Amino acid sequence: MNVLPVFFTSVLYNLRYAPLIIQIACVFIFIAVTCTVIAYLSILIGRYKGHRREKKLARLHPLIDQLLLENVLMNEALIQEDAEEIPLAADAFHQPVFRKRWARQALIDRLIHYRNNVSGIMGEQLRNLYIQLELDKESLKKMKSRKWDKKVQAMAELTSMNMSIADVTILPLTNSRNRELRAAARHAYIKLSKNEPFKFFDLATEPLLLWDQVELFRIISTTEKIAIPNFAQWITYSSNKSIISFCLKLVVHYNQISAVPAVEKLLDTRDHYLRADAINCLGKMQIAEVEDKLIRMYNSQPLNCQIEILKLMGRVSSGKHVDFLRQEFLHSTDFELRKNAAKSLIKNQWAAKNLINELVDTATAENKRILKHCMNPLIKF
Amino acid sequence: MEFIKNFYEGFVFVYGCTMLFWYALLAMLSLRGIIRYQRKNSYVDHNIMVQSPLAPGISVIAPAYNEGVTIISNVRSLLTLNYPVFEVIIVNDGSTDDTLEKLINEFQLTEVVFAYNERIQSQPVKRVFKSVNTAYDKLVVIDKVNGKSKADASNAGINAAAYAYFLCTDVDSIIEKDTLLRMIKPFMDEENKKIKEVGEPCPECGYVHVVEDSIRVIATGATLRLANSCEVDEGVITRVRPPRHWLPRFQEMEYIRAYVLGKMGWSLINCVPNVSGGLGLFDKEIAIKAGGYDSKSFAEDMDIVTRMCTYMIDNKLKYAVRYIPTSQCWTEGPPNLKVFSRQRTRWGRGLAEIMTIHRKVIFNPRYKRLGLVVLPYNLFFEFLAPIIEFTGILYYIYLIITNHINWPFATILLLFVYLYSVMITTLAIWWDQMTYRYYKTWKEVMGLALMAFLEPFVYHPLIVFFALRGYYFFIVGKKHTWGNMQRQGFGQKKTTAA
């Protein structure tokens, strides 16, 4: 019975005179036990808090939904033509629960959720409610926070509610060193700036990441009443290559023929990635005038640019350069070049039907396989 | 003799301390990585990519060998991934069952003439199939001669891939629907391709030669978890549970520690040693230039990442290998000791192989992090650990027999090591809970966390033994077959009869 206490007493006694390693080990035993206990407690507390939060929100969400349905979404008076003049029943929302910060945040999130799913006058009414309940002040308060994630949250809320933010506040953030903050500020600026939504293109020194481009592209292409500028100005003058690359994609999306001369100038740029993007842009816009120049350039280009030139021949499908495509298909040593030449030949089929038949009959086994691959409508790439 | 004893004791002491230090460092790094990921992604809507014309294409490659029982539902599951531009390449690796017939019948496949470019060597491809039904136009089925390894089949898939990125997975794994959306993000979060001009204009072409000067993400991995006791409905996990059986449960705990604590920590300092073969998204161009998967390797996933990194460094290109902490793939872990021993022996053998093949990179300052951190860490704390542990046990026995042991001190030291390992595992489970509360009840979390107390006595000795067996097989060059794991099938949601 007394073995254990005696053992530990002797251990403690010996510890005083124990070697340093043993003393350090004892300290670490204490640290390990403490950290393990903290970890267990944190897991349990975290789960309990999460569970409580879910329960509270599960009770609050139906209440918010009901209030919104009764006072806004199903309010027939608001569907009238002069609905904007009808005062909203914001009083219904002045309930004790909405004095708590978490509940007000839940209300903001729910309003945003509904606003993203309705349009027109209903959307406007939700915005009015957001203002009347002074929830915009909460968002603006977050905007002043030192924490970048709070700022990002604020911008997301204000953007969703179409609230304006002063240029002086937002423009510096579009060049922030913090990627997330920078991206959020750029999105907000494009969406909220009434006069010059693309002004930050002039100022941007930090790169526009590919993910940001996806997000910006969506905002630009889905925002109503946005004034689309001529992107040639940035293609010509911007020193930020990621901005130029993004503008090329926008030029294609908006089919901006007026920007073509600026894109053509890019064919002489030293950056072959940018050059390939420019050729891609011209191809997608089916600019036949550049074909001759590109054929002259072809042999001095790296592989990515050569592939884009061949693709352009297919997209333009002018039928003028089938001999060039044939030449590349038969004599290129690179598989990808031959495949792209074959694809473009097939796209020029209207002008090269006999040539294609001849190639199918006379080509090597591998080239024949490439041709048949490209001719098969089941295979897209 | 005394000198050898002192040297060994000193070495083990320094080794142990360094190992514990690394674990503590990894725990801190992974915590930072997870918090950063959470904060960064809390306002990100991955679904914006679904509609975007700017989304880069991804080829999903899934080799299949004798998967006739589950192939149809698994392929259907892959075809419903949430992403705008992707293809699913199923590589039938010479199955001897009805895998291919089932695919042909179910998906209305027809043989096509395919421009297959063998950039990476693999066993010959016999036929390529495409569906005549436009609903399955994303599907490509390759029928090839059996290459006796997943790596060989994956290489054939890479050769046929149309897009710039490829996702390698197992056809019997369950992949979350948003996997491609989440895993492509690290590739798009790095700066766009940037160039640096080198030297004077070239007299031949007139251009100043340029080199790429941006960090290129070459691979991304995500956390894998065991699906052994989870409920699955139509290829979707509907209820996550830790495995009920003790062996897969230990593996689940080990996976959490390895992915959430280990790889997230390594990811933060760009020192990820490997991207799991179960789920990895790769840059196709670099993977091909690095030679693809080594079909003879027993650790082909670590091998390809090491070779891709080596390629980048050799060509003076900046690179990164990233990990995301969310669980994107659910796989069936070995349910019994026999299958488990085969898997771990293979892993042990694979590790020994990697250390031998890439020995010139280890401690080579030219290879920077790869040569000075990643591979040395794997050499000392992954490869040598079982050997040192085993010799340590022998030495302990010798000390006990010769009565040279100070029991109180020995007890303290053992207790220290034991509690430290429990702490590390518990922290990993804590970090995992911070990422996402996968398990429904706290009892399930506790049930998993408490396994850490048993691990050093039950699970860890098995790992050490099988690793040593793998090393032995590697040394004697014993032939080792991959073996086909008999799938138990994923738990279906119980339905009550009306």
TrEMBL record, chain A:
Against InterPro entries, the record matches this protein to: ARM-like, ARM-type_fold
Keywords attached to this Swiss-Prot or TrEMBL record, sorted alphabetically, are: Membrane, Transmembrane, Transmembrane helix
Name of the molecule in the record: HEAT repeat-containing protein
- Spans traversing the lipid bilayer: 20-46
The organism's place on the tree of life at top rank = Bacteria
TrEMBL record, chain B:
Task: Say yes or no: keyword rRNA processing present.
Answer: no
Q: Which residues cross the membrane?
A: 12-31, 379-401, 407-431, 452-475
Looking at the record, the residues that make up the Glycosyltransferase 2-like domain are: 59-191, 245-420
Pfam families reported in the protein's UniProt record: Glyco_trans_2_3 (PF13632), Glycos_transf_2 (PF00535)
A single GO molecular function term of this UniProt record: glycosyltransferase activity
The answer to whether keyword Transmembrane helix applies is yes
Q: Identify the Gene3D superfamilies for this entry.
A: Spore Coat Polysaccharide Biosynthesis Protein SpsA, Chain A (3.90.550.10)
Q: What keywords tag this UniProt record?
A: Glycosyltransferase, Membrane, Transferase, Transmembrane, Transmembrane helix
In the record, the note on similarity to other proteins reads:
Belongs to the glycosyltransferase 2 family.
PANTHER family with a match to the protein in the record: POLY-BETA-1,6-N-ACETYL-D-GLUCOSAMINE SYNTHASE
Q: What is this protein called?
A: Glycosyltransferase, catalytic subunit of cellulose synthase and poly-beta-1,6-N-acetylglucosamine synthase
